[in-house]
Structures are given as C-alpha cells and as structure tokens.
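Structure ticket #2291
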Amino acid sequence: MNQSKMNLKIAVLTIALLVAMISVTSVMAVTDGEPDGNDHPYVGLMIAKDADGNPLWRCSGTLISPTLYLTAGHCTDAPSVSATIWFESDVESNRAALGYPFGGPTSVDGTNYVHPDYDTNAFFLADLGMVVLEEPVYMSEYGTLPELDQLDQLKTKRGKQNQTFTAVGYGLQQINPVFVQAELIRMQATPRLIQINVPGFTGDFSMLLSNNHSTGGTCFGDSGGPNFIGDSNVIAGVTSFGINGNCAGTGGVYRIDRADDLNWIAEFFD
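Resolution: structure written out below.
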C-alpha cells in the first residue's frame, strides 16, 4: 500500500506542477462545487518554491492566525523551502497583475515546515504542513482548530452518513482524459462523510469524504485546503489524497484533531 500511496503523491505533485507553471485550457478548483466568493477569505492559494525561488507546485491552505498558514505536509515537503500565497478569491482573472506564480503586490511569502513524523514514502500518515508568513495578514476571522479527538464521535453518531463538510480550495474543477478545467478560483463543495476510524486504509488519522456530482469533492491543487465541519470555520482536516486520477468517488482528508497534530501546531503559537 505504501508504494501505491507514494505513486499517488508523485501524480499529485506532477499535475500540480504542470498546473502551476503552464496555462492549461481554462484551469479551476473543487469539483462540482461553486465559487466561494468571500465566504472563506482566510483560505489562500499557495505556490511552493525551492531554495532558488523557482515555483514547484500549487496547493491550498488556511490562515489560522495572522502569520500561520496551515496546509498539507506534501505541500511543504522538500525540495520546497518557502511559499508565496494569495488570498484573492479569483486569481485567474488577474494573473499578470497579481504576479502569479512568482509573487506580486498582494501576495505574501513564508517559510515552509512539515510535521516531524512526516515521511515522503508514507506521506498520508502525517500529512500536515505549515507556512510561517514573513508579514502578518489581518482578517476579521480565521480558520479554527478542532478539539482533541473531536471527530471520533462521528464513528458512532447516528446518521453519520449525513455529516457534511465544507471543502475549500483552488484545485482542478474537472478532469478526464480529454478535458481539464482548472482556473485559479477559490471554490467550495459540501462532501459527506464516508469512512472514519476504520482499521487499514484510513485508520484513525484520516477519513474519506464523498466526491461526486451531487456533493462535489476535491482534486489536484486542493491539497492542503481545509475541510470545515459542516458550515463552521472549524478545520476537521486538510485535503490529502485521492483514490483515483479522475478525482471521483472519494477523497482523503488528513485529520488534525489528534494530540500530535494539535501539539505541533501549538508550537508555532509560542
């Protein structure tokens, strides 16, 4: 399983790199979703960069304070060392003016960090990253963290199949063998809980959410983006992996309500 997961990561990063560096036929985000507008202004578009400042790949993430941007570990992993982030809901219409993907008048830069247990060969086990911004971004509201083990209650909750989340990101909106739609627009969808606390595939560290035409879901470029509990601003987890290359069926979310994750995040607030 580890080898297949590693192959999945390579596919995610490869497509994200192509999207970040090349103009594709109209590029978008969250599949079967809708434009987010100003609903989640603290969710931003990230371009990871190497030591020489070269753009590598694109991801999504959430401001949880004026200087802390929470994302996935595979988004801040080597060879990236830094990131440039935009918080406009529509970067696509103003690429040149906003300086995408290198940086412009409204973007902010930061230093990348990965969860101490992160392993490139099994990234899904500790897929959490942080970008510490060089300058604060002040907003009236930020994404908030869940309580310790908060999501465990969903395992036995009656009607858990009706538990929804709000996935937000700037990734591909549609992908198939002949058509890719991937505009740089912040989008949202409302996937439902499929699986949590099941030994093996998801374990107690991640969960599976729906990804279909009815609920919407996530795709390449949404990695690191938040999956809020219901319509709140509480981050259940970050978008981590997909089951297939067409971004359909189910999507994997790395939970951040475990002690090791919350403790690691808390270190950045000290």
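Closing remark: The chain is about 15% helix and 35% strand.
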